[in-house]
Amino acid sequence: MDAAEFRKRGKEMVDYVADYLEKIDRRQVFPDVEPGYLRPLVADCAPQEPESFEDVFKDIEKVIMPGVTHWHSPYFFAYFPAASSFPALLADMLCGGIGCVGFSWAASPACTELETVMLDWLGKMINLPQEFLAGTDGQGGGVIQGSASEATLVSLLAARTKTIRRVQSEKPELTEAEIMGRLVAYASDQAHSSVERAALIGAVKIKTVPSDDTFSVCGSALKKVLDEDKAAGLIPFFFCATLGTTPCCSFDKLLELGPICNKENIWMHIDAAYAGSAFICPEFRHLLNGVEFADSFNFNPHKWLLVNFDCSAMWVKKRLDLIGAFKLEPLYLQHHHQESGNFTHWQIPLGRRFRSLKLWFVLRMYGVKGLQEHIRKHVRLSHQFEHLVLQDERFEICAEVVLGLVCFRLKGSNKLNEALLESINKAKKIHLVPCHLREKFVLRFAICSRTVESTHVEFAWQHISQLATDLLKTWEQNHHQQ
Questions:
Q1: What is the arithmetic mean of pLDDT over 454-463?
Q2: Which pairs with CB-CB distance under 8 Å and at least 24 residues apart come from 328-335?
Q3: Where would one find coiled-coil regions in this protein (predicted)?
Q4: Are residues 53 and 119 in the same domain?
Q5: Could you say which of 53, 83, 113 is where a domain stops?
Q6: Average pLDDT, stretch 260-284?
Q7: Contact at 8 Å (CB) between 140 and 317?
């Protein structure tokens, strides 16, 4: 494919993507395929001779689309928002076209410098304390990770390195292995599984801190666990606080937890993967109060800020804590501007894409006000669904609805609610996923799509309500027969 054909085919692909997104509500939100569906649709091995673009293009609908779950459908209410917008897609095209591998300043100065500035822009939008920003001479700064899982892992590894060095300076008789064996990380019992995975990769113990009736961790619960572990000779070193837990979007109490972590020399990382985008709205910024006590903070613009995956924003107060854990500089990576920024020291992989272009395009073309309205619209729609649920005495709301997520269920057994979810997803008119809150099987209704409107929420509720009616009738008949 030469440049001339690329121009032609590129325009065709843009038209295809635009049509796909404009008409996505006509597609069934969840596919009708079984595992292994794709293999019979393609050849056993790669072709020896080149194929035409037309042949490849026509197979998109034949091979790919039948197996796509349409995350951007207005009938997709599962998991979390996977934000996308036309400015972000255009920026990703430019990113792919430039094709730099921006591991250092010299590898592509614009890649490093734009990312530094964009993370300062984003930090200012959520009113992060100044010490988290790079500015022109700050000690902190932001970086784009691939996911919140990476941000948690990087934070934990940096905390581990910092703690080992501190303990060795205080107790030189202890070996690194002895210290490692006594390190303990902590997170809420509602925290995302990626926190446990980070501890697994980091080869340290992790313990869960029990959450309260609102599914939040408070200071007294953390202090109790810390006191017990210190008495047993363990070394607490890392706590991951969650703002917007995956099951029900609950918020740990930072103003209680932060001072404890600071006093105990524990690195506090804040995972606000989903909820963090809402902090650009002044009415939700109070949920971030206490961030001033944190050592690192993360949220995902690729969830709710109209920036397509992957773009996970992470900030640290002292970037040297991060760099000190990962810095290796072989000769082939050295250059004359070493101190101008090497993001490879802030992350797990060496290479990185020019992801800040997406932020630059979206923040400029939507503006803060446009993004605020996007968040507020989703929150309004979640309260619309909450109101509909509360109007039906057969259902109950299982957690406070703060942002765009509603946790609800039929009053009754877990098996009844499992059957309801199965009937919802089997019908494939909308798509939901569940969670467990304590011992209850709960349905999650997340406002996700950029194009979702009040009519889609109303349709979803009417559909759920009718399926519930049919299900309860069947269950009642079966009960009488038994």
A1: 97
A2: 333/103, 333/104, 335/104, 335/105, 335/106
A3: none
A4: no
A5: 83
A6: 95
A7: yes
